[in-house]
Amino acid sequence: MPELPEAETVRRGLETETVGRRISRVEVTGLRSVRRHPDPGEPDRRLRGQRVQAVGRVGKFLTLAAGPEVLVVHLGMSGQLLLSDGAGPRPPHSHVVVVFEDGSELRFVDPRTFGQVFLSAGPEPGRRGRPAELAHLGFDPLTDGLPAGRFAALLRSRRTMLKALLMDQRFVAGIGNIYSDEILFAARLRYDHPASALDEEQAKALYRHLLRILRASVRLGGSSLSDMQYRDVYGRPGRYQERHLVFAREGLACTGCGGPIRRQAWGGRSTFYCPGCQIPGPGPRRG
DNA sequence: CAGATGCCCTGGGCGC
DNA sequence: TGCGCCCAGGGCATCT
Asked: How many angstroms separate the CA of A280 from the C1' of B14?
């Protein structure tokens, strides 16, 4: 499930491999992947002949600037961006393929089609020229450099449960189910702890763990789960899953207390936590 | 406004 | 061996 560290790993690969290359055409075969475009031929028309200038990222979204155009990619659940020299057959579910003038290809492969590819309608005024379609996203933990005190104040103003807030892309961009569980375990806070119940020090500590874990995962190329769906642009899996302390570890011994990690259905998906180490918070105040 | 729910979609795992 | 069921979950729409 590509989250920020996986998107950042892909971004680095794209930056290395595609900046400076000229696009000769874009082949779209998966209409759902370009669902924001009423006309699926639009990406080809607008990108033809443009040279890739920069590769950016906001949360889980990737952006390729090419001439006046910005191509935005979200990997969804099962999306991959794979580089190829253009020889050999394309893998199944290659819904969008950017062909460069040397014949090499950038293939958007996405079996479950939760991901998407679209050309931005333009930059949002202010906010560092972020594509307008990404205006709703909150701060990016690795690129926006939000001071800890600001984070703590923002967090403590919300009454939402911590996990819901960490996964809320409007609050902070890039954290999903895996990293929210890992961050909350590191901070010794349970998923259902109300954000507003944290004191200043707890909120700052949570932020430190958030940054530390995302950076550590980027260093190891992100997390590939048992399905090995996540791959970088060279097709390599990540290695951060070896460092997961709670995610997908139901029944295994907690590294903190030795007790079993618990799995809880919550918000329509699985949450993993240690009942011994992670505190649930004060609960609703009475009186 | 915030929380809950359902939908989209396919491959893989599992029970029978 | 094979079929059908269920699950994985990010983002969004919709309802309360």
From this structure: 34
Task: Tell me, yes or no, if A3 is annotated catalytic.
Answer: yes
Question: What residues make up the domain containing A110?
Answer: 4-134
| A242 inside domain | yes
Q: Any atom of strand C under 7 A from CB of A136? A: yes
Looking at residue A156, the DSSP 8-state letter turns out to be H
On average, the pLDDT of chain A sits at 91
Q: What is the mean pLDDT of residues A149-176?
A: 92
Q: Which residues have CB under 8 Å from A60's CB, separation 6+? A: A2, A3, A4, A7, A74, A75, A169, A173, A174, A176
Q: Residue A280 has what pLDDT?
A: 82
Q: What is the pLDDT of residues A251-268, one digit of tens each?
A: 899 999 999 998 888 777
Same domain assignment for residues A122 and A67: yes
Q: Give the closest residue to C10 (Cα–C1′).
A: A76
Note whether A108 and A205 are same-domain residues: no
pLDDT (average), residues A176-195: 93
Tokens of A197: 């119940």
Nucleic strand C near CB of residue A76 (< 7 Å): yes
Domain count along chain A: 2
Claim to verify: residue A130 and residue A172 sit in the same structural domain: no
Contact A183, A166 (CB under 8 A): yes
Q: Which nucleotides of C are covered by protein (CB under 7 A)?
A: 7-12
- A3 with A11: CB under 8 angstroms? no
**pLDDT tens per residue across span A74-101:** 999 899 999 999 999 999 999 999 999 9
| Residues, CB < 7 Å to strand B | A 32, 77, 92-93, 111-114, 158-161, 164, 226-227, 267-268
